[in-house]
Amino acid sequence: MKILVFNAGSSSLKFGIFDMNIEDSRVFKGEFEGFKNGTCTLHYRVGGEQGIEQKRSESLRTVEDAIMRVPEILQEFGFADFDAVGHRVAHGGERFHDATLIDDDVLQHIESCTPLAPLHNPANLKAITISRELWPKLPQIAVFDTAFHHTIPDRATTYAVPKEWRDKGLRRYGFHGTSHKYVALRVARELKQPVTDLQIISCHLGNGASVCAINRGFSIDTSMGMTPLEGLVMGTRSGDVDPGMFTYLARELGLSVEEIERQLYANSGLKALAGSHDLRDVEQKAAEGDADAQLAINVYAYRVRKYIGAYAAAMGGVDVIAFTGGIGENSASMRRRVCDKFEFLGLHLDDDKNQAVKLKGFEAPQVQSFDSRIKVIVTQTCEQLMIAQEVKYLLAQHPQAEPNTWHIPVAVSARHVHLSQEAVETLFGTGHQLKKLRTLSQAEGWAAEETVEIIGPKGSFKTVRVLGPTRKQTQIEVSKTDTFTLGLEAPVRPSGKLEGTPRIKLRGTAGEMETNGLIIAARHIHMSPEDAAKMGLENGDYVDVKLGDGDRSVSFGNTLIRVKKGYVTEMHIDTDEANAAGIAFTTKGELVMNETRGEADIVAKKNMELNGRKAA
Q1: Known catalytic residue at 145
Q2: Which stretches of the chain drop beneath a pLDDT of 70?
Q3: Which of 37, 119, 248, 275 has the lowest tally of Cβ within 10 angstroms?
Q4: What are the phi and psi torsion angles at 196 (to 5°)?
Q5: Rounded distance between C-alpha atoms, residue 230 and residue 480, angstroms
């Protein structure tokens, strides 16, 4: 499959042909830039990432002219035939969580998001409109910068502003999602670990810049907000400012809201601080003693450090800090400045490795010292390749886009506890063994006679059922609602992933103890190998599932598949999710029995990118 990818900006056009059947897939790379006096420059490369970069002048006045020229350019180099067109789109609003086949309705919605991305969506729309005219019979797919960030929880996307404003779409969306997703997968491949086992802070540092907290494969926060203006200092954008400045500048300087916004986008950032939006120029000025340039570098690095520190706290730890983008890839001194203050977290940079980074293709060198607990990785972002992968994946799934006929049972897990043998003896007495009360649907588990009290800083739950058999680590599973009663925050985690989880007190009949291991269990589907093979699923896949029909139906995204011999195929959700889906249950304080279960359809979408098997 060959895919044409467009990334259209207001003053440049990037495009490429990807042959998805070969490893070095970008067989043609092109970029039009420098539009001035009726001409521009075409940079191009043929023959994969190791091809020779070339350039030539083109008599084109605008980006629209350049888009119209693309078919001729491709034909010149033998790429007249391809199977689909993928488009980078900056803002998809709340509607688009995935790559989407473009039709008139989708096009209209993208246009409706223009006020949220006034510098980006109009250019993206021009490319889509012209492309649909040039290749009317080819599928055209939109891949949204905002899509990867739809897993960010409400607490991180919600602005504390009046409800009528929030009802109009005022919330944090995040951008650079395609880049951050690619970087997370590239890091996982470099470390030979599933991305779902890693806590990554991705730093996309360039003329536009953002930081993203990627917790076990999912974006949980990012520095850009409702628009690409929030967050870090950028080339010409201010990043975070006090919104009170709008009334102050209107009063003191007579500036309109529109003029202030324009200045924050186009004449702020490094350009305002040091006179240039290019960090290479700023670093040169700083080396020559320019005080403004030195300040600009310090401000830039400080803002990045601040977000990294915040996101390490938000995730409860960090395994990898990844640098990408023009500055992240090329400025060893900026990487050093950013990393210098994190020795307290166990991060130690190797200066020689850091200085030696020279990226040509898909390299992802590690630049931390041998004794660093946190890994530091530098890699080129490849948003166009990620777009091509999303397009390929969507087209492969499209013939099965309607919900399939696989129906699976659903069981509801109320709060319960798994104990280690050491914990059993602490809570119930030396030598005590759990006593089996009844079997559960999964043959390896059973409900014990024993119950415990879970005690938090604010409240407690008595007679919480213990499930057997014992495990190596104690694990306490509660719902989100339960955490408010207990008075502390618990992460959403797959079973067994207990690093960095909060401590909680347990009380039994013979004693009490404090332990970590408090989680909100990530929704999951136990599946037999036979059923997994029939459905085309593997252990570690993520799927979407649908419960119910009509107006009362509920879709649960990113549901983990757990395949094991002896499992009975069954979806497990917690009590909050059951309430949302309208599933009735009567048993409290333990695992609900199967006679109360509902049924779910597995939606024909498999988030294979998240487990790293399809990482570039």
Answers
A1: yes
A2: 398-405, 548-553, 583-616
A3: 37
A4: -75, 0
A5: 29
The encoded tokens of residue 545 equal 């599932």
Decide if 113 contacts 93 (C-beta within 8 A). Answer: yes
Q: How far is CA 130 from CA 2, 17, 67, 274, in A?
A: 20, 17, 7, 39
Beta strands in 180-250 (DSSP E): 199-204, 210-215, 218-222
Domain boundaries defined on the chain: 1-144, 149-397, 402-616
Q: Which of 590, 588, 587, 428 is nearest to 506 (CA)?
A: 428
Work out the number of other CB atoms within 10 angstroms of the CB of residue 436.
Answer: 12
Alpha helices in 206-276 (DSSP H): 245-253, 257-266, 269-274
d(CA 581, CA 597): 11
Question: Which residues are CB-neighbours of 43 under 8 A, at least 6 positions away?
Answer: 30, 31, 33, 53, 54, 55
Residue whose C-alpha is closest to residue 92's, from 155, 171, 183, 173: 173
Q: ∠387-391-394 over CA atoms, to 5°?
A: 135
Helix extents (H) in 58-149: 63-76, 104-112, 121-134
Give the active site residue among 145, 482, 574, 601. Answer: 145
pLDDT at 592: 43
Interatomic CA distance for residues 509 and 427, integer angstroms:
6
Per-residue pLDDT at 536: 82
Closest among 84, 100, 72, 76 to 18, alpha carbons compared: 84
DSSP, res 52: P
d(Cα 342, Cα 329) in Å, to the nearest integer?
20
Q: Which CATH number fits domain 149-397: 3.30.420.40, 3.40.50.1860, 1.10.357.140, 3.10.450.50?
A: 3.30.420.40
Compute how many other C-beta atoms are within 10 angstroms of the C-beta atom of residue 94: 12
pLDDT at 125: 95
The per-residue pLDDT for 126 is 94
**Residue 279, number of CB atoms within 10 A of its CB:** 25
Please determine whether the domains at 1-144 and 149-397 fall in the same fold group of CATH.
yes
Q: Counting beta carbons within 10 angstroms of the beta carbon of residue 318, is it exposed (0 to 12), middle (13 to 18) or buried (19 or more)?
A: buried
| C-alpha count within 13 angstroms, C-beta hemisphere, residue 504 | 33
The candidate with the shortest Cα–Cα distance to 70, out of 133, 139, 145, 144, is 133
CATH 3.30.1380.10 describes domain 1-144: no
DSSP strands (E only) in 205-341? 210-215, 218-222, 320-324
566 backbone dihedrals φ, ψ, rounded to 5°: 100, -15
- Tokens linked to 427: 């809570």
As beta bridge partners, residue 407 has 601
Query: Cα–Cα distance between 256 and 258 in angstroms, integer?
Result: 5
Tell which residue, 228, 233, 326, 227, has the closest CA to residue 271: 233
> Alpha helix locations (H) across 398-539?
421-428, 480-486, 529-535
Pair 377, 335: CB distance under 8 Å: no
**What is the four-CA torsion angle of 197, 203, 209, 213, rounded to 10 degrees?**
30
In 3-state terms, what secondary structure has residue 236?
coil
Position 555 scores a pLDDT of 78
Q: How far apart are CA 344 and CA 488, in angstroms?
A: 25
Structure tokens at 591: 């695992």
609 contacts 389 by C-beta, under 8 angstroms: yes
